[in-house]
Design a protein that fits this description.
The chain has ten helices and no strands. With about 270 residues, it is mostly helical. The radius of gyration is 20 Å and the shape is globular. GO terms for molecular function: iron ion binding; oxidoreductase activity.
């Protein structure tokens, strides 16, 4: 497997410059992974398939879905792409490289774990700040236009929020100066995680059923359903920050009540 990856990477670095790979390559990889993983949830909602796994019974209208896609394309090309282009000198200065040899899987694994932990910590506090009255009203309320989220709403946000919370995603790589392959892997995993958190469905195969610290869609959907002053569940990937600071109490209480209700239903049967 490793020789195949190295051969593919050799082709890339031979035919494209570092700038093209780091900026344009990263942008189009992000767009491909984001839309390919997010669009299916629009079709699921419209067709009504797998509705028994849908967290909320309410559906978004086609007009609301199309508005989300239109705004996303505007934000991605008008905000994300320019930021990637401008960030290239910074990442080069911090040590990012694209040349062979590729990093070992041990190095990649350690860096990815570090990025997830650091991102979750920074995102939690940034997200809580965005839920203060003024910032919520003028910035974060854009993201909360969709009380019933679907995959693509994960990146539907005010441009200021894209920059503000985007810092949580790039701070880890900026510190470590990773190989571009590691940066791409981190970006793909982060996109898949945030699409999953906003997908609106909780499946039997959802990661949160197998990883105790992973938040997932059920955890974050609660955040979108409630008023900003009472929502909680501010973390991006894991649940321990909300548990440590008591901002998941409402969610835990609701889960406990549902559990008791299910037990009562079983007894009646």
């Amino acid at each position: 497997m490793a020789p195949i990856i190295e051969s593919c990477w050799l082709y890339l670095v031979t035919h494209f410059s570092d700038f093209q790979l780091a900026c344009l390559g990263s942008f189009f990889l992000h767009e491909g992974v984001f839309f390919l993983s997010g669009l299916p949830f629009i079709f699921l909602e419209r067709a009504g398939w797998l509705s028994k796994y849908k967290i909320q019974s309410k559906n978004n209208s086609p007009a609301a879905q199309e508005k989300c896609i239109t705004r996303l394309l505007l934000y991605h090309f008008g905000v994300n792409l320019p930021v990637m282009l401008l960030s290239y000198p910074v990442f080069r200065y911090m040590g990012m490289r694209s040349s062979l040899p590729l990093p070992s899987w041990q190095v990649v694994l350690i860096q990815i774990i570090f990025y997830f932990i650091l991102e979750d910590f920074v995102f939690y506090w940034g997200h809580r700040i965005l839920h203060t009255k003024w910032l919520y009203k003028h910035v974060h309320s854009v993201h909360h236009e969709y009380a019933t989220p679907f995959g693509l709403t994960s990146e539907y946000a005010h441009p200021a929020e894209i920059l503000f919370l985007g810092f949580a995603t790039i701070i880890g790589p900026a510190i470590t100066g990773p190989h571009l392959m590691t940066l791409w892997l981190w970006m793909v995993l982060r996109v898949l995680e945030t699409v999953d958190a906003h997908c609106g469905y909780h499946f039997p195969w959802s990661l949160s059923n197998f990883l105790p610290l992973y938040g997932g869609s059920d955890f974050h959907d609660y955040h979108h359903r409630l008023l900003y002053t009472k929502s909680g569940n501010y973390s991006s990937t894991f649940v321990y920050m909300d548990w440590l600071f008591g901002t998941d109490k409402g969610y835990r209480k609701l889960k406990a009540l549902k559990s008791i209700g299910n037990e009562d239903d079983c007894k009646q049967m």
